[in-house]
């Protein structure tokens, strides 16, 4: 028996008390069955959206058109959706929705068997399509005809790969063949939605498996023309061990072409911050310098998460000596952050420098302190600056 949290249990009970059917469905039920703690809760009901709004004190009309109302109890958000059937999909994504009184019809229109089960505390588990068996056997399988499911909504192609990756499941043969044959339909899906599914796949613990599925199905090359190049590079490194938050930037950075990386990520609607970081990783990967200089440079420029960034670079370069070099330099007190340099642009203004010259001299000072952290004092740096300026005059 599934031990439901109080909040979704209250929603089911109140709907039942007013004569409506209500069942826990979707990913939260799958998580319960896998002994995982659900992050979101979905309830399917024959109550119409207006009934749900009337019954509960705090609601958000999340998607009234598609029958969804978000109920909030004790700060917990629970999506309550009217039983529905989906017809006449537009652009292989957007269906025309019709409400129904049938739980079977509602579950039949869902994507995969492991997401097409329902649960009620009194009725137990309801599984029309073999979802529990597929969970036991670790299989991702479409409900019904896989060609129809992917043709209706092409985003399911990426969701299929994402679920297989996150759960470490295999994709059932007919589902995988349909996925491959209809992959071109992804060109009709918005870049934002592709971004979300790709990111979830890459940020999974078993992300290397997702990379493999994207490659073997050629789905990767549909969404990113250079995917084969990325995969062939990343298949040679321990991509799974890159810190989760850096996996997406690292995925693109391995192309070692900052201009191309920025173009691809902008096209897929990634946020500017993530794009900038990917380009920075790309620059670190292509720096032609000693290991000492690389570590000093990264430590100098990065104020936060230095060790995680160095771990990412060491994995992408397949060179774990980088972390040893970092530890050695840190122990020898030979590392410094840019923010700790004991000279600023204001000090150079006092010396009479102006405009571009300030930036030029500051960069020279940074290089000097980077190589000589023991000389990071105002007097030492000013002596260096005066000598530098004197040499410039001569």
From TrEMBL:
<dbReference type="InterPro" id="IPR050264">
    <property type="entry name" value="Bact_CCA-adding_enz_type3_sf"/>
</dbReference>
<dbReference type="GO" id="GO:0000049">
    <property type="term" value="F:tRNA binding"/>
</dbReference>
<dbReference type="Pfam" id="PF12627">
    <property type="entry name" value="PolyA_pol_RNAbd"/>
</dbReference>
<dbReference type="GO" id="GO:0046872">
    <property type="term" value="F:metal ion binding"/>
</dbReference>
<comment type="similarity">
    <text>Belongs to the tRNA nucleotidyltransferase/poly(A) polymerase family.</text>
</comment>
<dbReference type="InterPro" id="IPR032828">
    <property type="entry name" value="PolyA_RNA-bd"/>
</dbReference>
<keyword id="KW-0460">Magnesium</keyword>
<feature type="domain" description="tRNA nucleotidyltransferase/poly(A) polymerase RNA and SrmB- binding">
    <location>
        <begin position="169"/>
        <end position="227"/>
    </location>
</feature>
<keyword id="KW-0548">Nucleotidyltransferase</keyword>
<keyword id="KW-0479">Metal-binding</keyword>
<dbReference type="InterPro" id="IPR002646">
    <property type="entry name" value="PolA_pol_head_dom"/>
</dbReference>
<dbReference type="GO" id="GO:0016779">
    <property type="term" value="F:nucleotidyltransferase activity"/>
</dbReference>
<keyword id="KW-0694">RNA-binding</keyword>
<dbReference type="InterPro" id="IPR032810">
    <property type="entry name" value="CCA-adding_enz_C"/>
</dbReference>
<dbReference type="GO" id="GO:0008033">
    <property type="term" value="P:tRNA processing"/>
</dbReference>
<keyword id="KW-0547">Nucleotide-binding</keyword>
<protein>
    <submittedName>
        <fullName>Polynucleotide adenylyltransferase region</fullName>
    </submittedName>
</protein>
<keyword id="KW-0819">tRNA processing</keyword>
<dbReference type="Pfam" id="PF01743">
    <property type="entry name" value="PolyA_pol"/>
</dbReference>
<feature type="domain" description="Poly A polymerase head">
    <location>
        <begin position="22"/>
        <end position="141"/>
    </location>
</feature>
<dbReference type="Pfam" id="PF13735">
    <property type="entry name" value="tRNA_NucTran2_2"/>
</dbReference>
<feature type="domain" description="CCA-adding enzyme C-terminal">
    <location>
        <begin position="252"/>
        <end position="384"/>
    </location>
</feature>
<dbReference type="InterPro" id="IPR043519">
    <property type="entry name" value="NT_sf"/>
</dbReference>
<keyword id="KW-0808">Transferase</keyword>
<dbReference type="GO" id="GO:0000166">
    <property type="term" value="F:nucleotide binding"/>
</dbReference>
């Amino acid at each position: 028996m599934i031990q439901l949290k109080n909040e979704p249990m209250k929603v089911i009970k109140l709907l039942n008390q007013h004569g409506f059917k209500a069942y826990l469905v979707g990913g939260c039920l799958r998580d319960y069955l896998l002994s995982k703690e659900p992050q979101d809760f979905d309830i399917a009901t024959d109550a119409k959206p207006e009934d749900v709004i009337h019954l509960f004190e705090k609601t958000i009309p999340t998607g009234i058109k598609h029958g969804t109302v978000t109920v909030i109890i004790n700060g917990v958000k629970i999506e309550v959706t009217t039983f529905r059937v989906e017809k006449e999909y537009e652009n292989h994504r957007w269906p025309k929705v019709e409400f129904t009184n049938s739980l079977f019809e509602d579950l039949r229109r869902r994507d995969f068997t492991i997401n097409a089960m329902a649960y009620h505390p009194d009725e137990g588990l309801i599984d029309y399509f073999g979802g529990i068996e597929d969970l036991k056997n670790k299989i991702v399988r479409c409900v019904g005809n896989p060609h129809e499911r992917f043709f209706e909504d092409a985003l399911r192609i990426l969701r299929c790969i994402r679920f297989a990756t996150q759960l470490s499941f295999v994709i059932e043969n007919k589902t995988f063949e349909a996925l491959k044959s209809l992959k071109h339909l992804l060109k009709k899906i918005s870049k934002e939605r592709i971004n979300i599914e790709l990111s979830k796949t890459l940020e999974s613990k078993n992300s290397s498996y997702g990379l493999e599925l994207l490659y073997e199905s050629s789905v990767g090359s549909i969404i990113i023309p250079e995917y084969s190049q990325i995969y062939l590079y990343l298949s040679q490194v321990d991509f799974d061990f890159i810190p989760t938050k850096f996996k997406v930037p690292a995925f693109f950075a391995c192309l070692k072409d900052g201009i191309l990386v920025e173009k691809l990520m902008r096209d897929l609607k990634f946020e500017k911050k993530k794009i900038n970081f990917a380009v920075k990783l790309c620059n670190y990967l292509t720096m032609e310098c000693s290991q000492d200089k690389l570590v000093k440079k990264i430590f100098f420029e990065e104020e936060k998460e230095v060790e995680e960034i160095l771990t990412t670079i060491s994995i992408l370069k397949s060179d774990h000596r980088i972390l040893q070099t970092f530890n050695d330099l840190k122990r020898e007190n030979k590392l410094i952050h840019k923010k700790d340099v004991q000279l600023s642009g204001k000090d150079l203004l006092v010396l009479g420098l102006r405009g571009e010259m300030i930036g030029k001299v500051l960069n020279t000072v940074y290089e000097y302190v980077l190589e000589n952290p023991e000389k990071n004092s105002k007097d030492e740096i000013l002596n260096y600056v005066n000598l530098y300026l004197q040499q410039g005059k001569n």
